[in-house]
Amino acid sequence: MKPLLRNFDIIFLDIDGTIVNSNHRQNAEGKPNALDLDYWIENSTRENIFRDTLMDNLVYYIKKKYLHGHYIVLCTARTLSDNDMDYLHDKGIPYHSIISRPENCTTPDAEFKYNQMKKFLNLKWTKRKKKFLYDDKWDNLIAGVRLGITPRYAHDWI
Prior knowledge:
The protein is α/β, with parallel strands linked by helices. About 35% of the residues lie in helices and about 15% in strands.
């Protein structure tokens, strides 16, 4: 989908730890960048997904950007289920496109996001646009910088 406005930014937006607090499903014991994947999968039920909470400051900001015509790309390194999509819609998270991990993909998060954002930025209409990445993981932000994307550390917005 091509945005109608000419003067718009492209905003890549991580989900977990950036706009959604899903810590209760991570079993990371307070360690940064830690994730017990088996625990995550086991606890990704509809009931648990709907117990996630929004990180309101950044969500408000993104909704405002969306309403002003900026192009929003949800960019997550996890697989999104129908329940995840229902949650995002239920909470009114605006977006134009989604980048998410296909099932059985084991590429490390930063490399996955780099490759997917690079493909997206190869589209003709994305050239010469300002690009931003909001994420809570430094490795992902560095991957964005390598593509010429301005990094925005999510925790600065909480």
